Amino acid sequence: MVVDTFQFSAEVDPVLRMNEEDVRRTSIAAAQKAIQLPGEKDSTWIFRHKTRLLIFLISTLGLTIVMANSLVFNFTVICMVEPGEEYLLLNETVPGATQPDFIYSDAERSWLFSAIAMGTLVGTLPITHLSSRYGIRLTFTIYGLISALATLLTPICVSIGMPFVFAMRVLQGVGVSTSWPVMGAIVAEWSSLAQSGMAVALLSCHLQLGAVVTMPLSGTLCESSFGWQGAFYVQGVATIIIVAIFFWFYRDTAAEHKNVSQKELRQIQEGKIVRVLEEDEYEPIPYGPIFRDKCIIGILFSCFGGNFGFQTFFQYGPVYLNKVLKFDVTNTGFAAAVPYLLAILVKFIAGPLSDNIPGFSAKARVILFASVSQFCMAGCFLGLALMPVELSVLAQLCYTAAIIFSGLNCVGVIKSTQLVSGRFVHFLMAINGFSNSAIVLALPGIVTLFAPTNSKEEWSRLFIFVCVLVVIVTVIFDLTAEVTPRAWAGGDTRRKKNVVAPYQDGEKRFEIEAEALGDTEAVERVLRRKRESVQSQTFSQTGRRLSILSLPRGYKAI
């Protein structure tokens, strides 16, 4: 759950915006690929017509390293001690050992943990404008370099003062804000409709892979001669390298990529519709009907509870393992990473399974996966609360299971969101994203309130609170869950090639099949008709750029 969606091809609503110049450039590039004579070999590597898989891989690496940068402090903070006390850190978990003097107090740690959420909110504000104007390629490169610079400068800022570290944490949060816009744009432009679900599953793995990368790396370097600073330098340099590769290889449209063959381009474009709109033309969101809908209320409650449970371990897992279960630093790194690796495997198994369980309706499957996910996660929290510290191995199993079960909710609550909201799914996912950021922002204060000294009893109270919260919101979801399109998500579904279709309010819609982008004359006709229509409307304004929406042919605008 936690901003982690496994979407399926039948429910994906890919959206890509371009100005008129980009439309023409894409059309010309597609036309040039179509000129290739029969039997003529491509002059460049085409990677067996699978260039898009390399795009997905490189993009996943880029998103992973940016996510890892936001988490590296969450781990290394347990290694940050005053100069000369590093030897005490190595013996910290030994009973009766002198505790080292850590650089930051609990209150300062809380502020530094919250800084990521602040940066995410700040970075989200301009990203839509930047990606629309400059493209995802340049936008992600800029955000990635900001994350790299902040990560490289953090060790220096630690020696200067806490406010400077806070600023670097905010900048790392700015980098994290690219996750969903970048993933959505890449899936819309580079994935075929048949593979869109798997593309989302692959790209969304960066949420777990970030922890898988940074936890063991930080744990190993913390106890090495490089110290905790080494983790920041290694990840900062790796970010620059990966972002540079992304900028070199990625293109905002598949048609413009020299390694995409004509065959692969047809596969990517098949079934998609290009709809030309003005940049500021949009469908108004029915806020009232959405927030009065009981199934949406259940979804929002469940998302909040699930996110709260997931983020408790996502942000504070290393602290709990080290301070309460007394894992040493290296073992903490590997113990914190394993659950996220297993969660990735569960995601790829549960996704197809949720569509093929015999004897269950779609609604029953959604409720089943949501219930198994959240009730089992709540049970794991309860087990951790009641379990004595001496049973550290069993506690580690509960910790691992809680994170794994939380991943199952991507085919429970999130799938219900996809099914009921149709073309307004982006709005509900945005609400979920803001809810998640608010939780990350508030969580440090809540943890400080429940567990100010990191004792077992204090963490037990927090775990019981999370358990009760998750159970309540899951029951609410189960009682209100739906899988059919809501009335406020309805709309016209009829589409014809190169035909101007009316909106419900009498306005006109201009469409062309994506496969026809290589027909430059057809593209120009659509653009010309749109310009003429704009000029004839009283609300038209000069200088408006044109936009393009990629939508699936036959897509049911539910």
From TrEMBL:
Pfam families reported in the protein's UniProt record: MFS_1
Entry protein name: (pine wood nematode) hypothetical protein
Keywords recorded for this protein, A-Z: Membrane, Transmembrane, Transmembrane helix
GO CC terms of this entry: membrane
SUPFAM superfamilies to which the protein is assigned, alphabetical: MFS general substrate transporter (SSF103473)
Membrane disposition: Multi-pass membrane protein
Chief subcellular location: membrane
Ranges for domain Major facilitator superfamily (MFS) profile: 55-484
Membrane spanning stretches: 53-78, 111-130, 142-164, 230-250, 295-314, 334-354, 366-387, 393-414, 426-450, 462-481
Species of the source: Bursaphelenchus xylophilus (Pinewood nematode worm)
GO terms of molecular function: transmembrane transporter activity
Subcellular location: Membrane
InterPro entries membership: MFS (IPR011701), MFS_dom (IPR020846), MFS_trans_sf (IPR036259)
Domain of life: Eukaryota
